[in-house]
Fold this sequence. Notes:
Blueprint: E1 3-7, H1 11-23, E2 27-31, H2 34-44, E3 48-51, H3 60-68, E4 78-82, H4 87-96, E5 101-104, H5 109-121, H6 131-165, E6 170-174, E7 180-183, H7 185-191, H8 195-198, H9 209-217, E8 231-237, E9 243-254, E10 260-269, H10 271-282
Parallel strand pairs: 1-2, 1-3, 3-4, 4-5
Antiparallel strand pairs: 6-7, 6-10, 8-9, 9-10
Helix pairs in contact: 2-3, 4-6
Amino acid sequence: MATVLVVDDHAASREIARATLDHGGHQVIEASDGHQALQLTASSHPDLVLTDLLMPGMDGYQFVRELRSHQDTARIPVLFYTANYREDEAHPLATAFGVSKILSKNASPLELLEAIAEALDGRVARSAITEDDARVLHDRIINAKLMETTEALGESQARLAAMAESSPIGIALADLNGLASYVNPRLCEITRAPAAGLLGQGWLRCLDHTQRQALCVAVPSQLPPSLDGQHHLGRLALAGGQQRWLRSQIRPVRDSERAVAGFAAMIDDVTAVVDAYERRRAE
């Protein structure tokens, strides 16, 4: 049984790796970033390190370079375990730092266990390039990946923005305090209010009293059942004494750790439907 240090800033990824390694009979210790991982390698002396590449503060390359610079940790086998880099992208610098193998996070549990077994049986190769050359190569690889990620993110955000801007339903995006940072044009049409008047707490006028109260007591990890995906019907008073019937639905927006990072509200004007129903009932 080997002791494996799993280094990843995503708790979900660490949990998946832990489940596989536990099944393979390995003991697992975890670190959420490179700095914590260096402390653990010095104190716990793991038999192998399984590390992500793209992490805040200190990426996988920088972590391995630090690991190799200390005599006590220089010979520890390292596997790169990444969802962001292809093998051909990560291979040049990984080889230079004596990383045994580069695995995708989509790899099967069997592939991961086999790679660990091979790394534990092998030897750590010495770096074939100088420190200056390694630094230049590292900067080039990271910059290329950042450019690629930024371009992909920009395209994704542009598509989402176009969908929201043309949506026939009003949309508001709010933080954990219920303060909206975005409202789409349709919500402005429904409420007959400018976007500036709906940002912050302004959009809350579209919700009924029950929803507003529930938002006030919502905890960061979840939404009250009365809010999460439930449809609510309420009235919105407009200038001149008019009123509109609005049907609203609020759903949590989660981050990469599945924690609630904010709310998305979908608000539809159903005045015509409600009026038709009232007429039929009166008749």
